[in-house]
Amino acid sequence: MNTGEAVVFWICAILAVLGAVGMVVSRKAVHSALWVALTMINLAILYVANSAPFLGMVQIVVYTGAVMMLFLFVLMVVGVDSSDSLIETIKGQRIPAILLTLGLAILLVWGIGSSLTGAPDLGLEDANTVDGGNVQGIARLLFTTFLIPFEATSALLITAAMGAMVLAHRERWIAKPTQKVLSIARFRGTVHPGNLPNPGIYARHNAVDTPALLPDGTPLMESIPAPVRARGDVAPVDHVELDEVKAISEGGTQ
Q1: Among 185, 206, 172, which residue's Cα sits nearest to residue 89?
Q2: Residues 135, 53: Cα–Cα separation, whole Å
Q3: Are 245 and 220 in contact (CB under 8 A)?
Q4: How many angstroms separate the first and last alpha carbons of the chain?
Q5: Rg of the Cα atoms in the chain
Q6: What is the DSSP secondary structure assignment for residue 207, as one 8-state letter?
Q7: Residue 238 CA to its chain's centroid (Å)
Q8: Residue 36: exposed, middle, or buried by beta-carbon count in 10 A (0-12, 13-18, 19+)?
Q9: Alpha-carbon dihedral of residues 136, 139, 144, 145, nearest 10 degrees?
Q10: H or E element, residue 14
């Protein structure tokens, strides 16, 4: 390994590990998704630096592009502030999850140990020349030696997608209220059911501190802005002026 390859490896390896750690410790889902994108981009750079351009492009296009965009679309639909349900949709999944996690850890340790104690690596350049290129070599390994693990991984991804759909499903415990029920509850509540009248409906006054009147002449305080009511600046109702306006509107004289 020359100096350039060593510099690229250490920079990308450190950034990839930092992205993985940030994904685990982040409290917000959006931040976790961005940390995962950082890890995937650095892995793609490492693939390209090690004479595996096909894997590097797939890492960028498929994982960093398509998969991460799928994660972000799900976050936008579900919502980043939505609370997680404490009720398990699928019962008895914790013990199998723990066992599968331990099995994955054992496989990782076994794979790393085999790579360190096995035969010396020939390098990707020699491996690519066997089948005529990087793409041909990957295709031969996927559809011959690793066909069963490849199909098992496909089934696992489908199962994970179905499991995510089931876990994201929110069970409705009560019936959805109809339009009739909502309308009745709106008019029976303590809040005014419709639009409030504007302040200043007198013929001689149009200030915001002048309350609107109900049909019986009672002032409607809700028609006054809350800051004006809080300051106590509501104008009193002058019933003498109201009688004059009523007389004029009925054809009388002032």
Answers
A1: 172
A2: 9
A3: no
A4: 104
A5: 35
A6: -
A7: 56
A8: buried
A9: 90
A10: helix 3-25
- Residues 6 or more apart whose CB falls under 8 angstroms from that of 36 comprise 19, 23, 68, 71
- 97-140 pLDDT, tens digit per residue, is 889 889 988 988 888 787 777 666 666 677 777 777 778 888 88
- Residue 6: which H helix or E strand, with range? helix 3-25
197 burial (CB, 10 Å; 0-12 / 13-18 / 19+) is middle
What is the DSSP annotation of 156-187? HHHHHHHHHHHHHPPPP-SPPPPHHHHHHHHH
Q: Which DSSP letter does residue 198 get? A: P
The pTM for the full model equals 0.49
**Token digits of residue 220:** 């409607």
CA 200 → CA 87, 205, 235, distances in Å?
54, 6, 10
Distance, in Å, from the CA atom of 214 to the CA atom of 55, rounded to the nearest integer, reads 75
Which token pair is 238?
A: 């002058």
Residue 189 CB-density burial (10 A; 0-12 exposed, 13-18 middle, 19+ buried): exposed
Q: For residue range 188-245, what is the model confidence (pLDDT) as tens digits? A: 877 766 666 666 555 455 577 888 777 667 777 877 888 888 888 888 877 777 777 6
Whether 124 and 52 have beta carbons less than 8 Å apart is answered as: yes
What is the pLDDT at residue 247? Answer: 77
